[in-house]
């Protein structure tokens, strides 16, 4: 039997009671967002209650795997801040504003993108990087037309 070792050295996001549906969806290469049943606002990152109105009546909405966004802000990191990132410098870390839900902004790396090509308003789409056999990490790539 072939012995498989994972080369993934980075921290794997832990699932907790509040964010488990988000990561369960990510593992299936989909985006799920927590939504307040009372005031209809979305929360990312999710919490035990609505950050806007305090309601504990929250549910989850699945947005599937076609997630478009634009770069709301970004930083370019030339120094690894965690083990495992040293082979990917510079790293472009963006705050992405979802096209369908502009109130939601999701942090992630922009992959396959040169530092000179990134700018505020750049159209990007969500992609998922499989980091272990059963875990995947949402990231972003530029939209290519
Ligand atoms: Zn609310």
How would you sum up this structure, described in words?
This protein has about 140 residues and is mainly β. The chain has 2 domains: about 15-65, no CATH class; about 65-145. The chain has 1 helix and 8 strands. It has one helix spanning about 20-25, and strands at about 30-35, 40-45, 60-65, 70-75, 90-100, 105-110, 125-130, 135-140. The chain has a 5-stranded antiparallel sheet, covered by helices on one side. A hairpin with a 5-residue loop joins β1 and β2. The longest helix is centred in the first third of the chain and has 8 residues, at about 20-25. It binds zinc ion (ZN). The site of zinc ion has 8 residues, from loops.
How is this fold's topology laid out?
Blueprint: H1 20-27, E1 31-36, E2 42-43, E3 58-64, E4 68-77, E5 91-98, E6 105-109, E7 123-130, E8 136-142
Antiparallel strand pairs: 1-2, 1-3, 4-5, 4-7, 5-6, 7-8
Bound molecules: zinc ion.
Q: Which labels suit this protein?
A:
mainly beta, five-stranded antiparallel sheet, globular, binds zinc ion
The biggest beta sheet reads:
5 strands, antiparallel
| Overall pLDDT | 90
The proportion of residues in beta strands is 35-45%
Structural class: mainly beta
Query: What is the count of distinct domains?
Result: 2
Estimated helix fraction:
under 10%
The total count of strands amounts to: 8
Q: First CA to last CA: what distance?
A: 43 Å
Q: Give the overall silhouette.
A: globular
Summed up, the helix count is 1
Describe, in short, the structure shown.
By secondary structure, this protein is mainly beta. It has one helix and eight strands; from the N terminus they run H-E-E-E-E-E-E-E-E.
């Amino acid at each position: 039997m072939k012995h498989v070792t994972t080369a993934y050295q980075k921290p794997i996001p832990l699932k907790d009671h509040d964010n488990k549906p988000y990561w369960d969806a990510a593992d299936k290469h989909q985006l799920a967002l927590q939504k307040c049943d009372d005031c209809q606002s979305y929360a990312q990152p999710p919490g035990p209650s609505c950050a806007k109105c305090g309601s504990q009546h929250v549910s989850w909405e699945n947005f599937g795997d076609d997630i478009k966004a634009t770069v709301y802000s970004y930083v370019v990191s030339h120094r690894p801040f965690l083990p495992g990132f040293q082979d990917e410098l510079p790293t472009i870390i963006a705050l992405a504003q979802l096209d369908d839900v502009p109130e939601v902004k999701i942090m992630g790396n922009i992959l396959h993108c040169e530092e000179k090509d990134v700018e505020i308003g750049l159209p990007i789409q969500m992609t998922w990087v499989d980091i272990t056999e059963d875990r995947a990490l949402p990231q972003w790539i530029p939209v290519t037309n």
